[in-house]
Automatic annotation (TrEMBL):
Full protein name: Molybdopterin-dependent oxidoreductase
Gene3D superfamilies: Oxidoreductase, molybdopterin-binding domain
Occurrences of domain Oxidoreductase molybdopterin-binding (ranges): 56-202
Upper lineage: Bacteria, Bacillati, Actinomycetota, Actinomycetes, Kitasatosporales
Pfam families xref list: Oxidored_molyb
InterPro entries: OxRdtase_Mopterin-bd_dom (IPR000572), OxRdtase_Mopterin-bd_sf (IPR036374)
Amino acid sequence: MGRRLLLGTLGLGAFGVLAAPTLQRGLESLFAGDPTGLTGLLPNGGGFRYYSVTSSVPNKDASNYRLTIDGLVDHPRSYSLADLKALPQTRIVHDVQCVTGWRVPGTPFEGVRLSHLLDAAGVQTKGRAIRFTCFDGAYTESLTLQQARRPDILVAHRMQDKPLGHNHGGPVRLYVAPMYFYKSAKWLSGITVTEDVRPGYWEDRGYDVDAWVGRSNGRDDAPTS
């Protein structure tokens, strides 16, 4: 390789390193909310990728966000973002594993334990499962009541030690630490206690309902920690 060609190649490489974050942000902005899954091909800040199953998702903030808890409970409740922040907070640092293969190690999430909200609502005897709905109008998820009471399941409003942004499911999302990330429903708006597990959006399309990392969906990923 000639000297001029070598220097030119090195220069382009350096430019790529410097320009990549800006180009990446532009691509993410262009494809944000894309239902085609194209954004899943794009790595983004911190190793995360954006996924949405709808063409657009409304933005919510402290002024208009509400989380409802209903179904087989004694005390149905609607929480504002301020209400959730006023409750006892739990911070979990755990790996995030996507069923498509990428992993982000040591990711902090912070919020209210789901078990705390269920206890406050008073789950009735017939209640054995939880159905989660989202304000994108399409996505749903589910857990058994036993799973939902684990201490590493959060209704989270912070991620990576900052408020949860819209593209990461903010202002509030579910965080299910030991399961594949599709169980951690973004844009969370409803928690409904039901008699039986109702498969969620991706379970209706072939994903496992019980999505333990490394023990489901035909994958052998190392368990998250």
